[in-house]
Structure formats: structure tokens, C-alpha cells
Write a structure and sequence with these properties.
With 111 residues, chain A is of the alpha+beta class. Chain A contains five helices and three strands, in the order H-H-E-H-H-E-E-H. Chain A has helices at 6-10, 12-22, 27-37, 46-59, 82-106; strands spanning 25-26, 62-68, 74-80. In chain A, strands 1-3-2 form a three-stranded antiparallel sheet. Chain A is elongated. The model of chain A has no long low-confidence stretch (mean pLDDT 82). With 877 residues, chain B is of the alpha+beta class. Helices cover 55% and strands 16% of the residues of chain B. Chain B is built from 27 helices and 22 strands. Chain B is elongated. The chains are: A alpha+beta (111), B alpha+beta (877). The interface between A and B is medium-sized, with 26 and 30 residues.
């Protein structure tokens, strides 16, 4: 089990927003989806997931509602808000710029 | 870009605030949910349930920490944390009670004193007068002989001003008078004002009952009417409105009361019992006895009115040379005329109290710094245990807030008490002081000031501490040294500043005190010791004729001679230090000299009985005193003061010379008396003429008795004697000349009391501050002192070492303070009497005093330091 990299911590907001853009999910499902989609590379510690979710909620980029879940209990489902969608676009663009810059440096041919 | 996030954030925040428990429960549920999912997954992969549970919990991590972080993310923990901080802060403050008490009291003193003084300044200087449109009200004073303020004008001049002025909407004239009131209980002397037409309307003062004067009542032969002043009406007549329509008898003449006037003009004209219509028809332009007030037209300024009136006065001077030569005018706003005299002193007090606040703030800073240094250990531990920097800062901030709120509340209480006290002791010396209240605005500023002060001075160390690296903090504690060198220097700088400021204030006090002594030592030209006085008013039909007055004098003097304990007694008008007395309009001139403005000289006239000079111990330089043979009908005589003799007949013998036109006769000089100060101790000697009462009788005069007996006994006997001649005569204003003399110093004494209170407080705070800083620095140098003593230094050496260092600081403070004082005390110039603002004696004495106080406050902690056992000091790690 590889440890989550610092980079992942920093871009956690982006990851969560994107996942929620596809469909509303609860905390557990978000962490599972992250693992699934990234092929187990991205494993976010739950200790940082929930505070991040609550922070995003405080900022107003995601909103939560309690829905009935499978086992007759209720679960807290998060979904993206409209301002959240805008924030997602912004963060995606930032990430693109950052990653292409890093790629350009890394791809430099050694002399 | 408009952010619609608030649609989501606002309800969320509200919910977190109002339904905190539910939100917490939801968080619990959410995390439990997560755990369940995790466990089920592990179990489905084949793990036994117990292991799955443990595994799941481990993976999730510390739920408490997660919850804490989520709550932090919610940002509303703030409120709950605030409450916790508050409780913790209160506990810590209680534990270090000495510090808390010192900080609270110091803060309260500085801020409270400022609020009190500012409230006074607001009530006296800033608040507009409670009269209609008061900024437009002004006084028109007369100036004579190149600017000296005579203030009063004549009726003829006033009428011309009224006709010609374009800047004033309305002018009013009034004059003072004294009357004997009979027919309403005991006969008494009252102060009255003759008010001109439109006077009350000019101020916007309406009667509380009845009416003011009608236009026809200003005609000379109309029926006499009067208004009663509110205070007099309530006090003497019980405040019943059926007094309107009744008659009162003033100076033997009947007048009908037509209205009651409120006391709203008291600050402007003084306490007045009865108001009468202005009936004077004096055609002589030179007879100046009346006061002029005016209301400016809207849009005109005092300056414009001033220039206009000066122009009018110049025209009158050209047109009427004899009466108006060198007479001018000056216009001042009514408010200035009332408070102008005390303005400087009040502003000086404001300055003093501001400096006091600076010292208080410096002390509080020192206290907070010392405390923060002592607590760095506690803070380091808490940081090690996981408190975030933000949390620590917030907690220290809350503590500062608590401290400042406490300080602010005590400041408010202190200010309330101080305001009450100030208004009670200042009634005689500060106009308009009766209206002083602790302003609500001042209150709010007080609280804000104290909060800001404590936050600023408490936050700085808090920020420094919380950002200091843990390691350093722990190391410093280990070494037993919890303050940095820079901090110590800063504290020393604060102490030097405090001492310097105290020095400045003390110098100010010293200068005022020296002036007071100089003034008190002035020779007034007479001996006030053992002199009792009482005033008599001969009123009523029985005293209309000159003969009746003279008969009364003789009876009175005969009666006074019979007093067993009196050394001597006499009668006189307006005794020395009693202010202006009768001064003839045109001055006096030597016989044979032309009556030109250059030859005449203004003279104070007094009418006296024989024995006056002996009783008052005024030297008779030449000639003789009046005797019982200087009677009405005999040769008119006069005794002149030395200064008058020198002016009228320089280098000649004045005896036998004559002065024309004195009380209608030409009088011959039979004696020369020493100069005395008739008006005040700080006025120059007065030019005076003395006339015998027997030849120039008057109905108001003063009895003066020289005796070594108790004044109350003498007063009683005088009362009896007058009563035995005429039981209906008011005898009033009993007192001793010592009191009169002392009262002329009253204003100065009052100023000194106030300024020295603040200077004393400043010195006290500085001493406390010095004590605190020295004790702290000594406690830090425990090891050093231990080493010194182990190496053979005795107690004395250590003490003188510490005290010596403080004296060095004081020396710096003294130099800085003296330089500051030399610059600032110039402001006090007009309050000083024959004392220079850089008087060397005062400067030296105050410097020595300050050094002594600083040394004393350092001595005590220094001595405590020497009690340290050298061995344990060295062992102290």
C-alpha cells in the first residue's frame, strides 16, 4: 500500500470536486471511488478526507443532504453546487497548467 | 464576480451555531457510517469481525482528531472556544491576582482620569450655551487706553452702536445694581440687573410664569415693575405663583412683580435675584457703567462684527473727543467671554492627564511583558501538546480582552466618581461646571481605549511567544532566564519615559506652587491680621437725607468704640482686595491743570471714617488722618495715595494742594497714605483718593474691626450694635480680611490642587513601574547576585549596584524630562506670577525629588535581592 503523496493532499479539493461532479456520493463512497478510478494509486487517508469535505462544505462549493442509504440507515450525501462547478473549472485549469509545466521540465533531454 | 456561495454558507453557519449538538451528532454518525462500511468490506474479504473492527479503526485514525479538524473547518467552534478561553483566562487572571489588580487599576486610573477631565472640558469649553442659537451671541466690550479691557460702555455709545451696526441683528444693554429688599420677610440686600428692551428675547429666555417687560415699562415715569429670578423665588418665596401681581419694596420704592425668570442666564450674568427694566436716561457719553451683548445676523462672524464695531468706535472717538478719546471696542463670542479665563488651565489639565495615560499604558505594557515572559513555559508546553498557533493567540487575546474589559469597567466607575468630585470642588472656580456629566460618547471612547490599549500591549508578546520556536523556549527556561536582552532594554526605556513624563508634570506643578507663594507674599499695603469685616446697607425712607446717614455713622462709630475687645474700628467703602470701587468718570486732575485726557488720571475713590488707616495699619506718610472735625460744611478735605501724589504733583509737597470736582467740591489734600492693592494681589498698586464719610456720605459701606478676639464673637457684637441703632438694617457678608486675602488666591490654589493630583498620580505610577521593573530584573539576575555575594560582596554593595543602575536611568530621564519641560512650560506663562517658565530652583528641586523617589522604589526590591542565600542562588538552575 503506497502512501498518499503530498501532491495528492494538496489537490484533494480538486479530486473531490471532480468526483462529486459526476454524481452525488457519501464520504465512504468517495474514498472508494478515488481508489477505484486511480487504480489504487491515490489513497487518501480518511483522516484527511472528512475534514476536507467539511471545509469544502463550509466554503459553499459542495452541499450535503441526508438520504436513505442501502441498509435502512441514512447517509450524508455530498453534491456539487453551482459555485462549486465554477471552482472545479478553475482548479482544473490550474492543475493543467501546473502539470504541463512540470512535464516540460521533466521531459528535458539530458545533455 | 458575484459569489452565490453565501446561499449555501449562510444557512450552514447558522445551523452550526444554533444546532450545534445536532451537527456534532451528525458528524459522529457520518464517521460511524464510514467505519461500518469499512468493517463490512474487510469482513466480506474474509477477515474475522473483531480483527476487521480493529483494522478499520486503525485505518480511520483518531476519530477525535478528525472530529476536531472537522469542527475547526466549521469555523463555528469559535463561539464555544471563546467561552472556554474566557473561563480559562478568568482562572489564570485570578491566580496571578497581584498582576491582575495592578494592571486593572493602572489602566482604570489612566483611562478613567482622562474620561473625567474630558467630560469636564466637554461641559465647560465645548458644549454650546443652552441659549437660543448661542454661537451667534456675543459681548461687545469697551477697551481703553490702548487695549486694557474696561468692558463697560455708556448708554449714549450703546445707542449709537445699536443704530449703526449692520452685523448685529439685535443689541442689548444691561447694568448691575444692588438694592435693599424689604416688605418680604427680613430686609435683605439683593443683586439686581436693569435689563434693556429686547434683552430677554435676544437670549431666547422666556419667563416660567407671568411675562417680561412691556415696551412702555421702559419709559421713565411708568409704574415700577420687576421680575424675580427663579432661584430666589423658589428659595425665599416657596415657589408659589401667586407672587405675581404682589408688590415688593426695593430701596423704599414699590414695584409690582410681573413674572418669574428662569436661571438660564446665570453663567452669563451671575446669580440675580431681581430683574428691573433699564430706565437710565444718562446723556453723558462718558458715564460708562453698562454691559452690551448682541446677536449676530445669520452669516456674519465675530471677526466681521469686531471690525465693524471698531470702525464705529473710531467714528465716535473722532466725533466726541472729550468722552471717547482712546476708547475702542472689541467683540468676543459669549461663550469665550464666559470660559476664556479657564480655557488654558483646563487644556493644561487635559495635557497632564494625557501624559498620565501614557505612563499608565507604559506600566501596563511592562506588566504584560513580564507576565508573558513568565508564562512562556506554560505556552511552550501547550504548544508541545498540540495547540495550534492560532489557538494560542486566540486564547491570549481573550485574556487580554477580559483584562481590558475589567479595566474599562473600573475606569468607568472611577470616571463617574471623579466627575462628581470635580464638579463639587470646582463650582467657584470653573464656570459652567454644574452641567458636567459623564458623556455617553466619552464612556464609549473610554471603553474602546482600554480595550485597544490592552489588546495592543498584550498581543505583541503573545504573537512573539507563540511563534518562538519551542526548542528555544524550552532552552531558555532551563537556563532560568525568561526574557531576552532586547526585552529588558525595552522595559528600561519605558521606565525612563515614565520618569521623564513625571518630571515634566512635577515641574509644571512646581512652577505653579512657586507662583502661588510669590503671590501670597505680596505686600498688599495693609495688615489683614485680626481684621473682621461686615457690610451694611442703609436703605429705606429713614436714610434719605445726608444728615440721617451722618447721624447713623456717628452712632455706629460710638457703638463700635464700646466693644471691649476691639483695638480699633472704622468704616469704609469697598475694602482693599475688594475689587473696583467708585471711580469718577473723568478721573481727577490737579487744580489749575487743564482737564485733558493727558492730564487726568483715573482714580479709585473710597469714603472712610477716622481711624481707618490705624485699623487697617496703612501707613500715613505725610499729613494727618481725618478727624471728627472734618465735618459736613467744613473745609472739604482729601487724603491721597502716594502714587496719586506723585502723578499729580511730582517732586512737590502735595499737602495743601487742591483737586477740583470731587463730589462737586474742590478738596484740599491733608494727608498722603501708603499705596495699597485695592483690586487684587496681582494687580499693581492702585491710585486712590480717600474722602471722609462725614463729608461724602453713602448708604453702602463696610465696618472693619481690628481685634485679637474670635471673629465670630466680633461679628456677633457688631450685629448687636447695628441692631441696637436700627433693627431693620441688613448686616451681611461677615468675614475676616484673612479670608478675603486667601480667597483671592483661590483660583490659583484650585489649579495647583488639580495639577498636583495628576502629577502625584503620575509619580506614583512611575514609582510603581520602576519598582516592578527592578524587582523583575533582580529576580532574573538571581544567579549573578549569588555569585557576587559568594565572591564576597556584602549586602550594601549589591543594593548600591542595583540602585546605582536605576539612578543612571533616572539621570537620563531627568535630562530628557528637563529638556521637555523647558519647551513645554512656556504654555504656562500666563498662569505664573513673577516666576519664569524655566525657573532654575524649581527645575533643580524637582529633579532631586524625582531621583530620590526612583532610588527609593529601587531600594526595596534591591534589598530583597540581598536576602538571597548565595548557595541556593548558585544552585538554582
Amino acid at each position: 500500500m503506497s502512501k498518499p503523496s503530498d501532491l495528492v493532499q494538496g489537490t484533494l479539493n480538486l479530486l473531490i470536486l471532480k468526483i462529486l461532479a459526476l454524481e452525488p456520493l457519501n464520504g465512504w463512497a468517495i474514498s472508494q471511488r478515488l481508489k477505484q478510478v486511480s487504480g489504487d494509486v491515490l489513497q487518501v487517508s480518511d483522516g484527511s478526507l472528512y475534514p476536507a469535505l467539511h471545509k469544502l462544505e463550509q466554503e459553499g462549493w459542495i452541499t450535503a443532504e441526508w438520504r436513505a442509504s442501502e441498509n435502512n440507515r441514512r447517509a450524508k450525501f455530498y453534491s456539487l453546487t453551482r459555485p462549486g462547478r465554477k471552482q472545479l473549472e478553475k482548479e482544473t485549469a490550474d492543475w493543467d497548467r501546473l502539470s504541463s509545466a512540470i512535464t516540460s521540465v521533466v521531459k528535458l533531454k539530458e545533455a | 464576480m458575484p459569489d452565490s456561495r453565501w446561499l449555501y454558507t449562510l444557512p450552514l453557519r447558522l445551523r452550526s451555531l444554533l444546532f450545534r449538538r445536532q451537527v456534532d451528532q451528525e458528524l459522529d454518525e457520518e464517521l460511524r457510517d464510514h467505519l461500518d462500511h469499512q468493517i463490512r468490506e474487510l469482513v466480506s474479504k474474509g477477515m474475522p469481525i473483531e480483527e476487521a473492527r480493529r483494522n478499520a479503526r486503525r485505518t480511520l485514525g483518531g476519530t477525535d482528531l478528525i472530529k476536531e479538524q472537522c469542527r475547526d473547518a466549521r469555523k463555528t467552534r469559535f463561539a464555544a472556544e471563546f467561552w472556554q478561553n474566557l473561563r480559562y483566562g478568568a482562572r489564570t487572571l485570578m491566580k496571578s491576582f497581584g498582576f491582575t489588580a495592578a494592571a486593572v487599576l493602572t489602566l482604570a486610573l489612566g483611562v478613567g482620569a482622562n474620561s473625567a477631565v474630558f467630560s469636564v472640558i466637554d461641559a465647560v469649553l465645548l458644549r454650546p450655551l443652552p441659549l437660543k442659537d448661542s454661537p451667534r451671541l456675543a459681548r461687545i466690550y469697551t477697551t481703553a487706553f490702548g487695549g486694557s479691557l474696561t468692558k463697560v460702555t455708556s448708554r449714549k455709545d450703546f445707542l449709537d452702536w445699536q443704530n449703526e451696526s449692520r452685523t448685529f441683528e439685535q443689541l442689548g444693554i444691561y447694568g448691575y445694581d444692588s438694592n435693599t429688599l424689604t416688605g418680604l420677610g427680613q430686609p435683605r440686600k439683593i443683586d439686581s440687573i436693569d435689563a434693556g428692551p429686547g434683552f430677554f428675547e435676544l437670549f431666547g429666555v422666556a419667563p416660567i410664569a407671568g411675562r417680561t417687560f412691556l415696551p412702555q415699562e421702559f419709559q421713565p415715569n411708568s409704574s415700577s415693575v420687576a421680575l424675580l429670578g427663579e432661584g430666589f423665588w423658589k428659595q425665599q418665596l416657596g415657589g408659589s405663583t401667586d407672587v405675581i401681581g404682589r408688590s415688593i419694596i426695593l430701596d423704599g420704592k414699590e414695584a409690582t412683580v410681573v413674572g418669574i425668570l428662569p436661571d438660564s442666564l446665570e453663567d452669563v450674568v451671575g446669580k440675580i435675584q431681581v430683574w428691573l427694566p433699564f430706565l437710565n436716561v444718562d446723556e453723558n457719553r462718558g458715564h460708562r457703567n453698562y454691559w452690551a451683548v448682541g446677536r449676530l445676523k445669520p452669516g456674519y462672524t465675530i471677526k466681521q462684527a469686531n471690525s465693524e464695531m471698531s470702525g464705529i468706535a473710531a467714528r465716535l472717538e473722532r466725533a466726541y473727543h472729550d468722552s471717547n478719546y482712546s476708547w475702542g471696542t472689541t467683540v468676543v463670542s459669549l461663550q469665550d467671554s464666559i470660559v476664556g479665563d479657564v480655557r488654558l488651565m483646563l487644556l493644561v489639565l487635559l495635557g497632564a492627564v494625557g501624559l498620565l495615560l501614557l505612563i499608565a499604558c507604559a506600566n501596563v505594557t511592562n506588566l504584560l511583558l513580564a507576565r508573558a515572559a513568565r508564562r512562556s513555559q506554560e505556552i511552550a508546553v501547550r504548544a508541545a501538546l498540540g495547540a495550534s498557533r492560532g489557538r494560542l493567540v486566540r486564547q491570549l487575546l481573550t485574556e487580554s480582552l477580559l483584562l481590558s474589559t475589567l479595566g474599562g469597567s473600573v475606569a468607568v466607575a472611577l470616571a463617574l466618581v471623579a466627575v462628581k468630585f470635580l464638579s463639587r470642588i470646582s463650582t467657584d472656580y470653573v464656570p459652567r461646571i454644574d452641567g458636567v456629566r459623564l458623556d455617553i460618547n466619552v464612556l464609549i471612547v473610554t471603553l474602546i481605549l482600554s480595550v485597544v490599549a490592552t489588546l495592543v500591549f498584550g498581543l505583541a508578546p503573545a504573537l512573539r511567544l507563540s511563534s518562538a520556536s519551542l526548542n528555544d523556549a524550552m532552552k531558555e527556561i532551563g537556563r532560568g532566564r525568561t526574557g531576552s536582552r532586547r526585552q529588558n532594554r525595552f522595559r528600561s526605556v519605558l521606565v525612563v519615559a515614565e520618569l521623564a513624563i513625571s518630571l515634566v508634570l512635577l515641574v509644571g506643578c512646581g512652577l505653579l506652587i512657586r507662583s502661588f507663594h510669590r503671590l501670597g507674599a505680596v505686600n498688599a499695603g495693609f495688615d489683614a491680621d485680626g481684621l473682621t469685616k461686615a457690610q451694611v446697607a442703609l436703605a429705606g425712607p429713614a436714610y434719605k437725607s445726608r444728615e440721617s446717614l451722618i447721624t447713623f455713622y456717628n452712632k455706629l462709630l460710638a457703638g463700635l468704640q464700646t466693644m471691649p475687645q476691639a483695638e480699633s474700628a472704622a468704616l469704609g467703602t469697598t475694602l482693599p482686595l475688594g475689587g473696583n470701587g467708585y471711580t469718577p468718570w473723568d478721573g481727577v486732575v490737579a487744580e489749575g491743570r487743564p482737564r485733558t485726557p493727558e492730564e487726568t488720571i483715573d482714580t479709585q475713590f473710597r469714603q472712610i471714617s477716622p481711624g481707618y488707616f490705624t485699623t487697617m495699619r496703612i501707613p500715613l506718610i505725610q499729613g494727618r488722618d481725618f478727624t471728627n472735625f472734618d465735618l459736613d460744611g467744613k473745609k472739604p478735605v482729601v487724603i491721597v495715595s502716594r502714587s496719586l501724589a506723585e502723578h499729580l504733583w511730582p517732586n512737590e509737597n502735595p499737602l495743601g494742594k487742591r483737586i477740583p470736582d470731587v463730589a462737586g467740591k474742590t478738596v484740599e489734600v491733608i494727608g498722603v497714605a501708603g499705596d495699597i492693592k485695592l483690586r487684587g494681589l496681582d494687580s499693581p498698586d492702585d491710585i486712590a483718593c480717600y474722602l471722609p464719610l462725614a463729608q461724602v456720605p453713602t448708604d453702602y459701606f463696610t465696618i472693619v474691626v481690628k481685634s485679637s478676639a474670635q471673629p465670630s464673637v466680633i461679628a456677633g457684637e457688631v450685629n448687636d450694635i447695628v441692631g441696637s441703632i436700627d433693627k431693620d438694617l441688613p448686616v451681611y457678608a461677615f468675614g475676616t480680611m484673612d479670608e478675603v486675602r486667601s480667597r483671592t488666591l483661590g483660583q490659583r490654589r484650585f489649579n495647583i490642587i488639580l495639577l498636583s493630583t495628576f502629577a502625584g498620580l503620575a509619580l506614583l505610577l512611575s514609582a510603581v513601574g520602576t519598582y516592578g521593573v527592578v524587582s523583575y530584573s533582580v529576580s532574573e539576575r538571581v544567579q549573578e547576585i549569588g555569585v557576587r555575594m559568594a565572591l564576597g560582596a556584602d549586602r550594601g554593595n549589591v543594593v548600591s549596584l542595583v540602585v546605582g543602575q536605576v539612578l543612571k536611568l533616572s539621570a537620563i530621564a531627568i535630562v530628557v524630562g528637563l529638556v521637555g519641560a523647558a519647551g513645554i512650560t512656556r504654555i504656562l506663562q500666563s498662569l505664573l506670577f513673577h516666576v519664569s517658565p524655566t525657573d532654575p530652583l524649581v527645575f533643580c528641586a524637582v529633579s532631586i525629588f524625582l531621583a530620590a523617589v526612583a532610588a527609593a522604589s529601587a531600594y526595596l526590591p534591591a534589598r530583597k535581592a540581598t536576602r538571597i542565600d548565595p548557595l541556593s542562588a548558585l544552585r538554582y538552575q
